[in-house]
Design brief:
The complex is a heterodimer.
Chain A: E1 4-7, E2 10-14, E3 19-25, E4 33-38, E5 45-50, E6 56-59, E7 62-67, E8 72-77, E9 86-92, E10 102-103, E11 107-112
Parallel strand pairs in A: 2-11
Antiparallel strand pairs in A: 1-3, 3-8, 4-5, 4-9, 6-7, 7-8, 9-10, 9-11
Chain B: E1 5-7, E2 10-13, E3 19-24, E4 31-38, E5 42-50, E6 53-57, E7 64-68, E8 74-78, E9 87-94, E10 104-105, E11 109-113
The chains are: A mainly beta, B mainly beta.
């Protein structure tokens, strides 16, 4: 049973456009939701994270929107750049339950020049 | 601060052999987690160590084991390798305390089993 589901599976966006990646989770005990970015040959890098006590968090061009009742959260990349082309993973964990992260399958974002 | 380092970066083994991978966490971090990344299954949690004790374990067979040393460095071992063990093995470190532990990943060890 996949506890964190990402959509779409892949995404192509023009430079300057908005990239939107969605995640849905099943376990209502999850209360920490990070997004990771991974380039080929590298480990995942933490982009931005949110807790369920806020509905939105913005850091530069990256914004997380969180909908607790729908058990969904999404990543918005504004003014997408070719350098944003990477694989993006959403994840979830339970605060206090150690450091175990449950990841979505990941989506490949391509930003066309 | 230096990031998480993993050695070796690449490994080629044959079925039935065993392998040991190493991870050095960010200085001051006491928690080390291991993940397996494959194209089919994505990123899957293996186990976490904190202060030399296994604090959490994922759903992997007993062939996968790990340990942590007093300096927080960690090793994971896979015995009796199978073809399906071919994967990128990632190590992540975090401070280990507090409710929301940011995890920082290393570059991974690419294991190929022939």
């Amino acid at each position: 049973q996949q506890q964190v589901k990402q959509s779409p599976q892949s995404l192509i966006v023009q430079k300057g456009g908005i990239s939107i990646i969605n995640c849905a989770y099943e376990n209502t005990a999850f209360d920490y939701f990070p997004w990771y970015q991974q380039f080929p040959g590298k480990g995942p890098a933490l982009l931005i994270a949110i807790r369920p006590d806020v509905s939105e968090k913005k850091e530069g061009r990256f914004t997380i929107s969180f909908n607790k009742s729908a058990k969904q959260f999404s990543l918005h990349i504004m003014d997408s750049q070719p350098g944003d082309s990477a694989t993006y993973f959403c994840a979830a964990s339970i605060a206090g339950a150690n450091s175990k992260l449950t990841f979505g399958k990941g989506i490949t974002l391509s930003v066309r020049p | 601060k230096a990031g998480v380092t993993q050695t070796p970066r690449y490994l080629i083994k044959t079925r039935g052999q065993q392998v040991t991978l190493s991870c050095s966490p960010i200085s001051g971090h006491r928690s080390v987690s291991w993940y397996q990344q494959t194209p089919g299954q994505g990123l899957q949690f293996l186990f976490e160590y904190f202060s030399e004790t296994q604090r959490n374990k994922g759903n992997f067979p007993g062939r996968f084991s790990g340990r942590q040393f007093s300096n927080s460095r960690s090793e994971m071992n896979v015995s009796t390798l199978e073809l399906g063990d071919s994967a990128l093995y990632l190590c992540a470190s975090s401070p280990g305390q507090g409710s929301y532990n940011e995890q920082f990943f290393g570059p991974g060890t690419r294991l190929t089993v022939l």
